[in-house]
């Protein structure tokens, strides 16, 4: 079996190793489709132009790289062959594509379609018809991609034509064998595919007539007349008109083969006409058809909550199955049956059976149906769930009768088959699904010409998710488009269940969701009502243990709720409520305020206690954990918060949900301030909030929060919390370019940790002090500090901090020119960061690894590393890491002489760093932009960039950055004559042990070969700050040389 399966017909789906992957972005999916279906090698420039024609070439290529990275992550390396200039599907790639399989099946039968049955190929054509679930990339929007959209439309037209062939061949082949019931679905589908093909309509009319449904054939003709008149302004052609005249006179066309026998006198109570068209549900209808075709399935019950669409689904299933039953299908509504004793009478009345004296209704009904072969549809049986024994007797006495029942719970009949009905598939993002299609169809009934605009897609998706695809909820919500845009409808229904009210002529239980749920509520016992109300406090599916702890309900109480489809059990064995049922049940809980307070308190204490355990909560419990935190804040349970705060924050940081965490902490800090809570807890809340802001790149906010947290914690005499706050304040200062302030904070944290014997805090503080030392050019001190900190962190088993330390150590190795060791160190750190699910650490280490790879000449691998880091940073909202990735990609583009793209990427990264206030990064981006300008001959622009970078580095006191920039400025002037102050300064520079290896190499290249002996290294070299000052003076004193010099070669070689 192929490892990758691409389902591109209908709503697209990609599977790997048998499991569906997360939905791809539309452009990524379109790229994969184009490459897979064309089966040839494509130039990357062509692909970027097809998919992003509105972008500048550099930005389009960057978007293409991101899309390719996403596909490689999802599909694996054995599917796509991505080269520097081309992209193709690998030869022999383990990929199955439904479009190609469909075309193979069509081509195999095209030469002699009339012999498909004789050659045993009806299964192949049936498979082809099943493969065509909809048009190519249904729901995928390619806005602005005119050429690609034209290609898709051409493919769609070709495939639709092939589908018409397949459906015609199947319908005609089955009809030639007298299998009219089997032929009819294919013929109807062909009409839906080709609505103006009159031959297709004529075949449907013939099949209906041959099946004994002459009235339906005549109705079909009337519908055809109306459609042709409205759409084309014409009447049906000669063939359909003649067939209509013959049927009107009672002369059906001659059948091509043996007909299925039918009773001559039809039964009354035919199936009612549907009020609205059924949207979606094709997979469910196909499964229902198989169940009803099984001789062993005598009683089939559709179960599901009110409003899920059981009635409409049963009606369509019955309509499709009726031609297979000798006596067709009959419909009986049980909603007015108030007592079990009236059940048989209600069915007899629906079938219009004449009264027979004193004969009991059940006996009379059994006698009437004893020789019949029909499908009996019983709608709305849940209120008879425990008194449906007459139905068992009916089935036993009428062997040719099948029961199709709709109910909110199983009836527990002998031989009963259950068929759960759930909501329609909902969009994860803004893609089109069956739920969206139903909303749009209902909205068009409310507003003539309603169109789903791009600005409304997010609102419609919210509506679909809020009602969890419940058809009644979607139809009731869609009726409001006359007054409100979808976004406002979504907001309103999330607050108020009564917002969803329906038309007055609907059945009582379908006039509103409240009426539907109230009907179910009345059928519950008191224990079941109490359990359902208490279950409303859960936001996510909960384990049985959690349910028992919070609600006190046993499995014996839960079971009826599951049977009545008011609760559901997930595949993971957890228990959950439908979102709207939860909203309804919560109203009943709120009606008893003291009960509500106790239940929420148990919920909060139970879930927050999970963060204290080694295993901790799982990602599925995030919403409940967040609600538990809010409850603890609202109820003022400060002792609980103090005990669980660290674990709660660590959980959200691991998942990368920093914005949610910061908002929760801000709310808690405000409540703590108003309640005059102990300063230690208030300070901790502020310090953790500052840490969130720092991770999100909001340095100004982080600085303010850290300062306030430090002020509160100093008063509180809380050394442990004060030490953590100092670490955060130091990290903020370091990123803002204040190494002295950062060193003061880190030293303070180290002192506090040492005083209380906290080895973990000591190790963390030392690793941050190493960053300061490295930034100031003291690599030897940085290495010593890292070595001590790393040993402690490994001993304590903290993979997140170990990964961060390895990142700093890798930077030192890069500075020293040991690229192989640096790459190995970064990879070790990356492995730990991934294992710890540390999104920020992973993204930053990917950038560091990309730099080391680029310096070693491994550019393709470097590009993959930076692109992965960029995608992760954007997905997790990590602007600092995003800027790092953009910088790395810009450097690669400059090395590969793609100067326009390099400038675009670097400017985007520079803008991000400016906004974040990461001044050291600003200096780095400016320096690299200067190198791009130097390579393109824009020497004055290069000088301005280098000077701005130098000014920033000097303001920050980062000597290593200033020295690198000084070498670049010297390069613009050309090689200095030996003996000049600049030559002497550069000659001394290359002997310094703290200088980065790359800067030393550039300086050596600038000095040139054969320039005489260099100064010997002194035992105690002067501070780098003194060397910087000396070089600045030398540059100022030296006259500019010829602008040609060595600058081209030097900048070409620099990473």
TrEMBL record:
Residue stretches of each TPR repeat: 923-956
Higher taxonomy: Bacteria, Pseudomonadati, Myxococcota, Myxococcia, Myxococcales
Record key words, sorted: TPR repeat
PROSITE patterns: TPR
Residue span, Bacterial transcriptional activator domain: 97-248
A GO molecular-function annotation: ATP hydrolysis activity
Transmembrane helix as UniProt keyword: no
Name of this protein: Tetratricopeptide repeat protein
Pfam family, one: BTAD
UniProt key word Transferase: no
Top-rank lineage group of the source organism: Bacteria
């Amino acid at each position: 079996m192929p490892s990758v399966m691409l389902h591109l017909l209908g709503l697209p789906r990609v599977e790997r190793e048998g499991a569906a992957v997360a939905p791809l972005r539309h452009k990524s999916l379109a790229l994969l489709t184009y490459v897979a279906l064309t089966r040839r090698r494509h130039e990357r420039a062509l692909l970027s132009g097809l998919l992003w024609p509105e972008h500048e070439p550099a930005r389009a290529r960057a978007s293409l790289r991101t899309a390719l990275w996403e596909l490689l992550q999802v599909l694996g390396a054995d599917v796509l062959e991505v080269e520097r200039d081309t992209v193709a599907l690998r030869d022999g790639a383990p990929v199955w594509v439904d479009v190609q399989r469909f075309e193979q099946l069509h081509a195999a039968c095209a030469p002699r379609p009339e012999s498909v049955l004789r050659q045993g190929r009806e299964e192949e054509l049936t498979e082809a018809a099943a493969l065509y679930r909809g048009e190519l990339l249904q729901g995928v929007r390619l806005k602005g991609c005119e050429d690609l959209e034209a290609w898709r439309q051409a493919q769609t037209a070709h495939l639709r034509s092939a589908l018409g062939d397949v459906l015609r061949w199947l319908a005609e082949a089955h009809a030639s064998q007298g299998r009219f019931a089997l032929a009819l679905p294919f013929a109807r589908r062909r009409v839906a595919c080709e609505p103006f093909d009159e031959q297709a309509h004529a075949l449907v009319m013939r099949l209906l007539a041959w099946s004994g449904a002459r009235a339906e054939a005549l109705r079909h003709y009337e519908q055809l007349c109306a459609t042709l008149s409205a759409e084309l302004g014409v009447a049906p052609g000669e063939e359909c008109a003649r067939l209509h005249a013959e049927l009107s006179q009672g002369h059906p066309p001659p059948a091509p083969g043996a007909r299925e026998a039918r009773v001559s006198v039809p039964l009354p109570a035919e199936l009612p006409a549907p009020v609205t068209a059924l949207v979606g549900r094709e997979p469910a209808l196909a499964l229902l058809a198989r169940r009803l075709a099984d001789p062993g399935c005598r009683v089939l019950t559709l179960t599901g909550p009110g409003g899920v669409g059981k009635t409409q689904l049963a009606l369509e299933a019955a309509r499709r199955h009726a031609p297979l039953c000798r006596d067709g299908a009959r419909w009986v509504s049980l909603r007015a049956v108030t007592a079990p004793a009236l059940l048989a009478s209600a069915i007899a009345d629906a079938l219009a059976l004449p009264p027979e004296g004193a004969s009991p209704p059940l006996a009379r009904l059994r006698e009437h149906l004893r020789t019949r072969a029909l499908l009996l549809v019983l709608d709305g049986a849940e209120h008879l769930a425990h008194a449906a024994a007459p139905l068992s007797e009916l089935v036993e006495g009428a062997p040719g009768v099948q029961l199709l029942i709709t109910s909110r719970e199983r009836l527990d009949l002998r031989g009963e088959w259950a068929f759960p009905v759930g909501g329609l598939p909902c969009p994860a993002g803004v893609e089109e699904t069956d739920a969206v299609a139903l909303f749009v169809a209902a909205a068009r009934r409310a507003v003539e010409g309603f169109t789903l605009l791009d600005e409304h897609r997010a609102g419609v998706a919210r509506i679909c998710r809020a009602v969890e695809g419940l058809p009644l909820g979607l139809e009731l919500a869609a009726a409001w488009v006359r007054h409100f845009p979808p976004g406002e409808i979504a907001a309103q229904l999330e607050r108020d269940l009564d917002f969803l009210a329906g038309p007055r002529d609907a059945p009582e239980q379908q006039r509103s969701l409240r009426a539907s749920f109230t009907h179910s509520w009345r059928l519950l016992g008191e224990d079941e009502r109490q359990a359902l109300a208490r279950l409303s406090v859960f936001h996510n599916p909960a384990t049985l243990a959690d349910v028992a702890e919070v609600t006190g309900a046993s499995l014996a109480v839960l079971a009826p709720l599951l049977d009545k489809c008011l609760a559901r059990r997930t595949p993971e064995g957890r228990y959950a409520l439908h979102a709207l049922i939860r909203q309804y049940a919560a109203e009943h809980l709120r009606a008893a305020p003291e009960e509500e307070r106790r239940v929420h308190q148990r919920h909060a204490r139970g879930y927050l206690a999970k963060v204290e355990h080694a295993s901790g909560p799982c990602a599925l419990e995030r919403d409940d954990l967040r609600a538990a935190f809010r409850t603890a804040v609202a109820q003022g349970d400060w002792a609980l918060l103090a005990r669980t705060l660290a674990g709660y924050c660590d959980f959200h940081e691991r998942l990368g949900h920093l914005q949610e965490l910061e908002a929760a902490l801000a709310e808690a800090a405000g409540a703590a301030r108003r309640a005059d809570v102990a300063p230690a807890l208030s300070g901790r809340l502020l310090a953790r909030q500052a840490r969130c802001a720092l991770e999100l790149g909001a340095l100004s906010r982080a600085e303010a929060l850290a300062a306030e947290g430090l002020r509160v914690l100093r008063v509180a005499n809380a050394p442990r919390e004060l030490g953590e706050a100092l670490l955060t304040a130091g990290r903020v200062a370091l990123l803002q370019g204040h190494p002295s302030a950062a060193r003061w904070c880190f030293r303070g944290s180290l002192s506090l940790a040492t005083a209380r014997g906290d080895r973990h805090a000591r190790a963390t503080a030392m690793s941050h002090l190493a960053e300061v030392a490295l930034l100031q050019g003291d690599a030897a001190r940085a290495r010593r500090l890292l070595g001590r900190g790393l040993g402690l962190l490994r001993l304590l088993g903290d993979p997140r901090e170990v990964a961060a330390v390895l990142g700093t150590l890798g930077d030192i190795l890069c500075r020293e020119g040991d690229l192989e060791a640096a790459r190995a160190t970064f990879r070790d750190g990356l492995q730990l960061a991934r294992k710890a699910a540390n999104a920020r650490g992973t993204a930053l280490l990917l950038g560091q690894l990309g730099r080391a790879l680029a310096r070693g000449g491994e550019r393709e691998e470097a590009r993959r590393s930076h692109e992965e880091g960029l995608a992760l940073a954007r997905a997790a909202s990590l602007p600092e890491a995003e800027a790092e990735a953009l910088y790395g990609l810009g450097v690669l583009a400059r090395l590969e002489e793609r100067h326009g793209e390099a400038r675009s990427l670097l400017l985007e990264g520079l803008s991000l760093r400016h906004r974040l206030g990461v001044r050291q990064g600003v200096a780095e981006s400016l320096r690299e932009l200067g190198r791009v300008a130097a390579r393109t001959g824009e020497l004055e622009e290069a000088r301005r960039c280098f000077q701005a970078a130098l000014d920033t580095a000097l303001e920050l006191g980062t000597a290593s950055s200033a020295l690198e920039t000084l070498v670049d400025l010297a390069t613009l002037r050309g090689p200095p004559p030996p003996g000049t102050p600049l030559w002497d300064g550069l000659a001394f520079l290359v002997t310094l042990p703290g200088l980065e290896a790359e800067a030393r190499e550039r300086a050596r290249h600038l000095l040139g070969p054969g320039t005489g002996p260099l100064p010997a290294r002194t035992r105690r070299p002067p501070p780098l700050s003194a060397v910087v000052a000396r070089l600045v003076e030398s540059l100022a004193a030296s006259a500019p040389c010829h602008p040609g010099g060595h600058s081209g070669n030097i900048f070409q070689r620099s990473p």
